[in-house]
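To: structure desk
From: M.T.
Subject: fold request, one chain
Message: Could you run this one when you get a chance? Sequence is below, nothing fancy, just the single chain.
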Amino acid sequence: MRRQGIIDGYCDEGPRVFTWFGRPEPVVVQHRTIETWIRVLRNAGFNILAIREPASSDPKDGNNPRFLLLCAETSASSEKGGACQTTSGLAERTD
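Reply: Done. C-alpha cells follow.
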C-alpha cells in the first residue's frame, strides 16, 4: 500500500501527481533528487552551508523526511556579513 507523500522511483525526476491532504483535485509537484538540487545551486554560484532532512513526526510515515531544507549563500551575501547557522536542527539566516 502506498502512503501519501512517499516517493516511488526516487531517481526518476519530473512531475508527480498526488492527492494532497484530502484536496479534491490532484496536485502536481516536480520531483528532483538531492543530487540535482545541489548541482543546480552550485552551478548558479551558491555555496551550500547546511542541509537538513527533518523526519516526520507521524508514526505512519515510518520516520521518513517530508522536506529538504538547504541553507546556501552567494559570494555577494557572504560579503554582507550574513551567514547560516543551525539552531535546534534548522538552518537560519543571521543577517
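Reply (cont.): The first strand starts at residue 14 and ends at 18. Let me know if you need anything else for the meeting.
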